[in-house]
Design brief:
Elements (H helix, E strand, L loop, with lengths): L2 H12 L4 H7 L11 E4 L1 H7 L3 H11 L5 E7 L2 E6 L1 H15 L13 E5 L11 H19 L3 E5 L7 H13 L2 H6 L1 H18 L2 H14 L3 H25 L16 H10 L3 E4 L2 E4 L9 E4 L7 H16 L3 E5 L5 H13 L8 E4 L4 E3 L2 E2 L10 H19 L6 H17 L8 E3 L1 H4 L7 H17 L15 H11 L1 H11 L3 H20 L8 H24 L9
Parallel strand pairs: 4-5, 4-9, 9-10, 11-13
Antiparallel strand pairs: 1-3, 2-3, 6-7, 7-8, 11-12
This protein binds arginine (ARG).
Length: about 575
């Protein structure tokens, strides 16, 4: 039962506030003696011109108190104490009935949401920043889908731009075909780095590259074929990673996809009187908004990154009529998106407001900021391999006889990395330290995975046990805390959507795992000699495993039954 909703509806009947407003005002007090939910009457006090505690008192005497143990007025707050037996029963039964759909809702039905994520650059390594975007985007996709939104996952591949001119020049001059077959991205990176080294000595190279890109944009065949080859080779490697991470996209429409949509865009910008010339380039002046101009076309007629983003947003709106158009891209690109969204707004598109940049911080690995320019990168395969082999080592210490150790280690290792990316507020930088990631204690993926496996093992042992459950016997504070957390699953998902913040789900699930550990370490389950209490506890264990499994799946992480 969604208590916030119930409370909000009951308060709405007695006030002039909207249910949504009330729901937003409702708090969950930090201390149990302040109730499970609290409604502050201060906002009402302004419109009703009465003291908050008088309003609280009036509400208290008239409100329908069904399902609550008691309702108190303390200092202008209306504190609700949920009836424990009811909450226990309703919550546990709901989880057991809904299973894989527990936590889900249909509030997003009929709404299309674009989640653009991952978007690596062709011919460059898929680096940890892209992994971050992949983890957050994939998770938002799943979180939104769980609430009925129709999501369209777009991988906006960086498959266009002047770097392809450089790569074409570099391939013709320096490529080692055999190395290209063996490990395309490494070889493409090598010659790309070489291009920059050589260009420092020979400035004409840059000009050559610029021309070759222009020819590519104009559709010249030789350049097209080379470009396609580079793209195919890169995608083959990226897809291996996506498979390993179990990530899927609905569309791979990347930057090149918009090439034939640029002319009409420029035409439209001209007609709307938005283009000005600046040093030969065509730009949208954004000085009124304290932003540098948005460059649409360079002096040689070539388009840039922003041009393609403008075309992409318009295309997406025409194609999907989106409710939201979400870009999961690092915060260093915040200004770029502000410029693009502002330009769309100036073009008269009201839906510019529905475009959202979901930024995230830097990933720092062994204190190095990762960049591809100098070839100073951590390759993602290697990162994941390392995580898996560390997990395997840990499993070997803990449970050397486990079947399918390698398979389990793969899931734990990859889950642990994803968990790390999804644990902190996304705007915060992530410092990647193995000891904090592959660890069965602490707030880690393996810790949550382990809690799940523990729960499953209890349930396996209880197979065949059959008794009616008496939920009113789950009386302890620890049991009730766990039930209460489970009952708040859906609210947490909705909150994660509101903030575009998968970390809300990640932290929530850490809380559930902690409460679960406290519960099963302190209360006898299998050895409980009261059958109806034992059944209630076992059902609580199962409700917990359902919650952990679903929450992890919203993060793109698979559970293991044994570890
Ligand atoms: N390919 C870009 C990069 O690696 C990210 C693309 C972000 N998406 C966009 N619509 N601009 O930096």
């Amino acid at each position: 039962m969604d208590y916030k909703k119930v409370i909000a509806e009951r308060i709405k009947e007695m006030t002039n506030l909207e249910t949504e407003t009330i729901e937003k005002l409702i708090e969950q007090p930090p201390q149990p003696d302040m109730g499970d939910y609290a409604f502050p009457c201060f906002q009402l006090a302004k419109t009703m011109r009465k003291a908050p505690n008088i309003i609280a008192q009036e509400l208290k005497t008239t409100i329908n108190s069904n399902g609550f143990e008691k309702i108190e007025n303390v200092g202008g707050y209306l504190n609700f104490f949920v009836g424990k037996a009811t909450l226990n029963e309703v919550t546990i039964k709901k989880a057991l009935e809904e299973k894989d759909k527990f936590g889900y809702s249909d509030i997003g039905n009929g709404k299309n949401v674009i989640v653009e994520f991952s978007s690596p650059n062709i011919a460059k390594p898929f680096h940890v920043g892209h992994l971050c975007s992949t983890a957050i985007g994939n998770s938002l996709y799943k979180i939104l889908s769980s609430q009925g939104y129709n999501c369209i996952g777009i991988n906006h591949l960086g498959d266009w731009g002047t770097q392809f001119g450089k790569l074409i020049v570099a391939i013709e001059k320096w490529v080692d075909e055999e190395a290209l077959e063996r490990d395309a991205i490494k070889e493409l990176l090598r010659i790309y780095v070489k291009f920059h080294d050589e260009a420092e000595k020979d400035p004409t190279l840059e000009e050559c590259a610029r021309q070759r890109f222009k020819m590519l944009e104009d559709g010249c065949e030789k350049e097209r074929i080379l470009w396609q080859k580079i793209k195919d080779l890169s995608l083959k490697e990226f897809n291996k990673l996506y498979e390993r991470l179990n990530v899927k996209f609905d569309s791979y429409a990347g930057e090149s996809f918009y090439n034939d949509k640029i002319d009409s865009l420029v035409e439209e910008l001209k007609q709307k009187n938005l283009l000005t010339e600046s040093k030969g380039a065509l730009v949208v002046d954004l000085s009124d908004f304290n932003m540098p101009p948005c460059i649409v076309m360079k002096s040689d007629g070539a388009t840039i990154y922003a041009t393609r983003d403008l075309a992409a947003a318009i295309y997406r709106h025409n194609t999907y009529n989106f409710h939201k158009n979400i870009y999961v891209v690092g915060t260093p690109q915040a200004l770029h998106f502000k410029q693009v969204f502002k330009t769309l707004e100036l073009m008269g598109y009201q839906w510019a407001d529905d475009c959202v940049h979901v930024g995230f911080g830097l990933v720092k690995f062994e204190d190095k900021k990762l960049s591809t320019r100098k070839g100073d990168v951590v390759f993602l395969d290697e990162l994941l391999d390392e995580a898996v082999s560390r997990s395997l080592k840990l499993i070997e210490e803990k449970n050397p006889n486990l079947e399918n150790k390698e398979l389990v280690a793969e899931k734990i290792g990859i889950g642990a990395v994803l968990f790390t990316y999804l644990k902190n507020n996304r705007e915060r930088d992530i410092i990647f330290s193995w000891d904090d990631i592959i660890n069965f204690d602490g707030e880690t993926g393996p810790y949550v995975q382990y809690s799940y496996a523990r729960g499953r093992s209890i349930l396996r042992k209880a197979e065949g046990f059959n008794s009616k459950a008496d939920y009113s016997k789950l009386k302890s504070k620890d049991e009730f805390e766990l039930v209460k957390l489970i009952s708040q699953f859906n609210e947490n998902i909705l909150f994660a959507i509101e903030k575009y913040e998968p970390s809300i789900v990640t932290r929530y699930i850490v809380d559930v795992a902690k409460a679960f550990n406290k519960f099963y370490n302190q209360y006898p389950i299998m050895s409980c000699d009261d059958d109806t209490l034992k059944a209630a506890r076992l059902n609580l264990v199962e409700a917990t495993t359902v919650t952990i499994k679903n929450a992890l799946s919203l993060l793109g992480i698979e559970v293991v039954e044994k570890m």
